[in-house]
Design brief:
rod-shaped, about 85% helix, about 210 residues
């Protein structure tokens, strides 16, 4: 074989070897990029879930609807990220079963959180809204009718207000029992107090309203 032919053969082999190495490097780089994107997606989903927990706790602590809005916005973003994550797993030949399970769990979590928010709204996010606000108004109405008429009755009304505030502050059923006891005592006093005869019907109506709301 001529030297010229040997040189051409060696050069050809070298070029083929270099092309093979370049192909391997490209494939390796592509795989690394996919792996890096996958790790990034997992990290983002994990951070989002932790942030959802923070919004939940902030809402429960402050009764502020801004945290519900932030929770819902992040939930929507997280849902999209989970879909992307499932696709990334399929690209590398990994089943996305666990991602699907996580999607189901998060959907249930969102549903339960929404239910809690609605219950809190019904009860009252502040002292002037919801059932809490209605209770406050009913007690105020009864106080106005009793004021300057009978000090014993007014004293029991103040105890009812204290029971109400203690329950709202501590959510302890013992205050419900105390409220019911004081409410029954007040109803008896109203029934048999002559000075309250003209307002008896209105007072009983206001008192019945506080019982129902509480």
């Amino acid at each position: 074989m001529l030297i010229k032919h040997k040189l051409v053969l060696n050069a050809s082999i070298s070029i083929i070897a270099m092309l093979g190495m370049l192909l391997l490097i490209t494939l390796s780089s592509t795989t690394m990029q996919k792996d890096l994107a996958l790790v990034t997606s997992v990290g983002e989903v994990e951070n989002d879930i932790l942030q959802l927990r923070r919004y939940e706790k902030d809402f429960l602590a402050r009764n502020d609807l801004q945290y519900q809005q932030q929770f819902e916005q992040l939930s929507n973003l997280n849902r999209d990220k989970l879909s992307v994550l499932a696709s990334q797993l399929l690209d590398i030949g990994v089943a996305s079963t666990e991602v699907q399970q996580l999607q189901t769990i998060l959907a249930t979590y969102e549903e339960k959180f929404s239910a809690v928010v609605n219950v809190k709204k019904t009860i009252g996010l502040t002292s002037t809204t919801g059932l809490y606000g209605e209770l406050r108004n009913a007690v105020h109405d009864a106080e106005e009718k009793i004021a300057n008429i009978d000090f014993e009755v007014l004293s029991i009304m103040l105890q009812l207000r204290r029971n109400e505030k203690d329950y709202m502050l501590r959510i302890d059923d013992k205050y419900v029992q105390k409220f019911e006891e004081n409410s029954n005592n007040l109803a008896n006093i109203i029934e048999y107090t002559a000075s309250l005869e003209d307002q008896k019907e209105a007072l009983h109506k206001s008192l019945d309203c506080t019982k129902w709301l509480f």
